Amino acid sequence: DQQVKQNSPSLSVQEGRISILNCDYTNSMFDYFLWYKKYPAEGPTFLISISSIKDKNEDGRFTVFLNKSAKHLSLHIVPSQPGDSAVYFCAASGGANDYKLSFGAGTTVTVRA
Amino acid sequence: NAGVTQTPKFQVLKTGQSMTLQCAQDMNHEYMSWYRQDPGMGLRLIHYSVGAGITDQGEVPNGYNVSRSTTEDFPLRLLSAAPSQTSVYFCASSYSTNQPQHFGDGTRLSIL
After folding, report:
1. Which of A5, B11, B14, B94 has a CA that sits 20 to 30 A from residue A75's CA?
2. Max Cα separation, chain B?
């Protein structure tokens, strides 16, 4: 049973607009969340993370929001650029005592010029 | 910096053959892991290690063996390959828990 779900397999957005990617989880023990970006024929690259003590973390154009009560997190990319076209994976772990990551199935983002 | 290096990049096997996928990291990371990626399923953890001499099973360990004799290396062994093991395999490492894992570029494995 998949504990991390990304229900949108794909997202198309115009260059300069906001991209919003969503992720839901079922395991209430998860307390560390990450987003990875993946280009074809490459490994996933770490993008941004958030721990459960926060509800928002920002890094340049990327912001992750965490809603613990809803078991939901989202990634905002503003503004979207052509180089952002990739597959984005949401991942979660049990934090300091748990190294294992559970991944969502990924969302393919296409940024249109 | 090399980071996490996986070899080979591609491999085709016949059913029943054995194979070792290599993974090496030069960041002195204690934590290492192996994942497989299948279409529509994201990455699933096969085995992981929290230090030299210590390994444990992940979500999908059946058909795979690992060992960790040094901090740098974490090979994944398929003892008798099956078509269901056709996948892309990623190795990752990190300094500790609550730190992002760094991934290699993967090994694409096809089993006929």
Report:
1. B94
2. 39
| Range B4-20 burial, b when 16+ CB lie within 10 A, else e | bebeeeebebeeeeebe
Q: For residues B40 and B59, is the Cβ–Cβ distance under 8 A?
A: no
Reply yes or no: is the peptide bond before residue A9 cis, omega within 30 of 0. Answer: no
The answer, for A62 touching chain B at a CB cutoff of 8 Å, is no
Interatomic CA distance for residues B12 and B21, integer angstroms:
12
Task: Note whether B100 contacts A34, CB cutoff 8 Å.
Answer: yes
What is the per-residue pLDDT across A4-58, written as a single tens digit (0 to 9) for each? Answer: 999 999 999 999 999 999 999 999 999 999 999 999 999 999 999 999 999 999 9
Q: Which residues of A touch B92 (CB under 8 A)?
A: 43
Is there a contact between B97 and A98 (Cβ–Cβ < 8 Å)? yes
- Say how far apart CA B22 and CA B8 lie, in whole Å: 7
